[in-house]
Structures are given as structure tokens and as C-alpha cells.
Model the fold of this input.
Amino acid sequence: MKVINKKSNIILIGIGNHPVPEFTVTLKEIIGSHHVFSGGKRHYDLVSPYLPKIHEWIFISGSMEALMDAYIAQTASIVVFASGDPLFYGFGNTIKRLLPKASLTVYPYFNSIQRLCHKTQTNYNTLKTVSVHGRDWSALDTALINKEALIGVLTDGTRNPSAIAKRMLQYGFDNYSITIGVNLDGNDEEIIQTNLKSIIYKEYSPLNCILLERIKVKEKQLGNTDNRFVHLPNRENMITKMPVRLTTIHALNCVENEVFWDIGSCTGAVAIEVKRYEPSLKVIAFEKRDNCQAIIQENKERFSAPGIQVVIADFFELNLQNYPCPDVVFIGGHGDRLEEMLEKLLDLNPNIRLVTNAVQEKTSLVFNSVLKDKGFSIDSLALQVNEHNKIMIHAAVKTK
Done:
């Protein structure tokens, strides 16, 4: 979406959902002294009685680029109405992004999450607010994995209270109560305080938001015991052992990264540990065995690790451009085509961080030789768990 660098003078007024808008004397003076206004249809229905008889209204709908073009075409200042606090997941941020040179004055109202806290007398000092309105689940997933005590959620028609409750129960986040605020400040306002199970089949007006309050703290282990994972049938040893997983996570050093790939994910053990260790990370698990789809999904649910994208396919047959470019990759399997895999990954990101666990000496030799020739430095650590074979953990970082 294009950014327009022409100046505009915009006054942004946040309003509530009251049937009769609550305007201060200052806001009434601003409205009365202007003639160009903008907002959605709902906003126009609310404020039209307060506008000057002769006025122009620019509806917020359709293409944002066309809307911004309409704004900059105006020579007079524009008064824009938005819901709640326009800088809280609101239209004010769109204006700042697309019209960075606009002269912007903001008169906010309370946002919907604040109003729900006020109406339920909820202390929101520790509130973590996320939005799934027109967005994916990632922000909510991160907040839940981080065990936030109080989470405010902006919903939409698809990711509604029922869908949120179902997803939380699916991934074991049953340790939260839910409060739903419906049509807050409207004539048909409704506030429901209940448990997740009671709402999974219910529908509510789309104008709602929710509070999730943690009612107990669930244990979050640093490393999960191997026997808790679902394994491949009759192949219980086909899992990266817990001490190796934890050492691998240390080697991956994902703290400042955005996208992590687990190639040859098998049961999903490494991907799950990484997601729980660094919840905001975008995690993609690649595995070619069809029966691993259900295994990884069950393990994700068992360990409360939503948000991991699972790709069941032969890695070498994929168009890797279709996936978010990785910052860091763990190679858990390569089908004896390690050099080819490394070349494909380096084509995507020449500065990628690469980690592998090698049982065979050949794997170590190929990994080290290929990447050293590409200007990588490699740290290696030998680790043996009980009677299992010794494993070499190699971490490759591009030398600056």
C-alpha cells in the first residue's frame, strides 16, 4: 500500500457507542466550526445530528489508498470520527502509516477493553491486550503461552468468543475465565461472565470484546519429558531426547529472530519446545511422513503449543518462496541430501543461522565443510544421553 507524503490537517475524534454521543464543549466547538467530516456509516448515523447543516462526509470504506487520496484532495481541515481510542488498533494508526506527514490532532475516548474493565470493576494494571480482528491467532497464542494473568481480546465475526473458547480448550488453556462485553454503552449492552465450556456453541452480536482472566497457573516446564510425547508407532526412539532438545534450543539462540524452520520435524518435539520457549516466534515444521500430521497436532495440543504451521511434504519438492523466510533453521532430517538442503536454505537467506544434530560422522563432515566454505563459523558440542549414540550438535553462524 502506497505511502502519501503530502500534508493534510486531520482532527481525529474518538467516540463511544452511546445512542447519544457524549461530546465535550471543546469537541462541540470543533465540530461546529468545520464542514468536512469523515467516518464509517455507524459513525455518521451517531453524529449527523450534531454536524453543521452544510457539510461534506467522506465515508471510510473500500480502498484505503482511495480514501487517503480523498483526504489530501481537501484544502480544509478534516474532522474524522473513529471508535474509542483511534490509536488503539484503530484508524489513527492507518492515517499515521499512510499519511506520515499529516498534521494529526487526536481526541480519544476509552477503548472497548477499557470500558469492559470499567463496567466489571476489573483492575487492569497488568492487562495484556491483543487483537484477532482481521488478524491471525499469533498474538493471542503468544499471550496464552506466556501465561498472562489478564488478556483483553478484540474479536471479529470469525474469531468470535465461541471460536476463541474452542481454540483455548483445544490447546489446554482451560485455566481462564471469560468475560464478554456485547454492544458496550449501547441500548442492548450485555456483559457475560462465565467459563469457556459454556460458550463454545453460543453466538453473540459481532460488536463485542472479551477479557480472559487466569484463574490458576499451569506448570510450564523447561523441557518436557520424552514419554509425554506421542511417538511414531513402534519407534519410541525417533525423538530428539530432552537434554539434546534443550541444548539444541540454546544453540538455535532464537531470541532476536522472527521465523524458525524445523526440517524433519517427526513428532514436532523440537518445534514445540522452541514455540513454548519463544512464543512470538513464527514456527514452521516440515515433515514428509503423512502419519506425522496427526502426531504433531496431538503433541501441539498436549503441550499447549498453538501457532505452529505444519507442512507435510517432501522438502525438496516445495517452492520455499511460498513460506516466510527463516532466520534460523534446525535440520533434524535431510534424507542423505544435506548439501543440497544447505544450498537451498542459503539461497533463501545467506546469513541464516543453522543447527543440526549429527549422529553419523558423514553428516558432521558435510555440514562443516559446506558452511565453512561459505564463510560460517561453527560451534560443536558432543552429547550422549544414557545408552544412546553420541550426538554432535553443530551451530553455524555467518562470520561478519
